[in-house]
Design goal:
The protein is an all-alpha fold. It has a single domain, classed as Tetracycline Repressor, domain 2 (Orthogonal Bundle). 73% of the residues lie in helices and 0% in strands. Helix 1 packs across helix 6, helix 4 crosses helix 7 and helix 4 runs parallel beside helix 8.
């Protein structure tokens, strides 16, 4: 049996994300991926059981990378404003450094792969972020609210800015480049909306 070549594994993961971003899940196939990587289909089956296994594992591994970056320097006992700022810094850094992954996760969002990948990849992240928000509520720094409301206020504005930046334009096609000034101005408004 042939052994795994980690350089090939990384190339396969990156190329799989790029292909899914450019052609969608419906246009993605193991045969096309093997051709794009310059390897045989048999080589792919050393690493992955089938197409579903490949996409799921790529999503889990990239999701773990995103989770690790999001949690970097985040102590759940930090004051709310400081902890949220760290998350904004980390999330924006990850997305700016990994634009293909950002679009890859967007593709998965409306597929069955999202649920498969999420059940594996977010336990650490869910635990830390849950403790962080519960601590903030207990200290009276934010009001108790449904998770969906909290997330929509705390992070949706950040992801909109990052999407505009990645696309190079905002609403109405106006040119857009995310600057630190705009990022932190938006953060200040989000913080104001979340704090009593």
């Amino acid at each position: 049996m042939r052994t795994r070549n980690e350089d090939k594994v990384q190339m396969v993961k990156q190329k799989a994300m790029e292909m899914i971003v450019s052609t969608g899940l419906e246009g993605f196939s193991v045969n096309k991926l093997a051709r794009a990587c310059g390897i045989s289909v048999a080589t792919l089956y050393i690493y992955y059981k089938d197409k579903e296994d490949l996409i799921t594992k790529v999503a889990i591994e990239e999701g773990q990378k995103m989770s690790d970056m999001t949690l970097k320097d985040l102590d759940p006992d930090l004051p709310f404003a400081e902890g949220l700022r760290i998350q904004w810094r980390n999330r924006s850094k990850y997305m700016k450094e990994n634009p293909v992954a950002m679009h890859f996760f967007e593709q998965l969002r409306s597929s069955t792969f999202q649920a498969k990948a999420l059940k594996y990849m977010t336990n650490d992240m869910r635990e830390v972020l849950s403790k962080f928000t519960h601590n903030a509520v207990a200290r009276g720094e934010i009001n108790k609210m449904p998770l969906e409301v909290y997330w929509s206020i705390a992070f949706a504005p950040l992801y909109s800015l990052l999407r505009f930046d990645n696309e190079g334009h905002s609403v109405g096609g106006h040119p857009f480049k995310l600057t630190d000034a705009v990022l932190w101005q938006t953060y200040d408004l989000v913080l104001k909306a979340l704090t009593p």
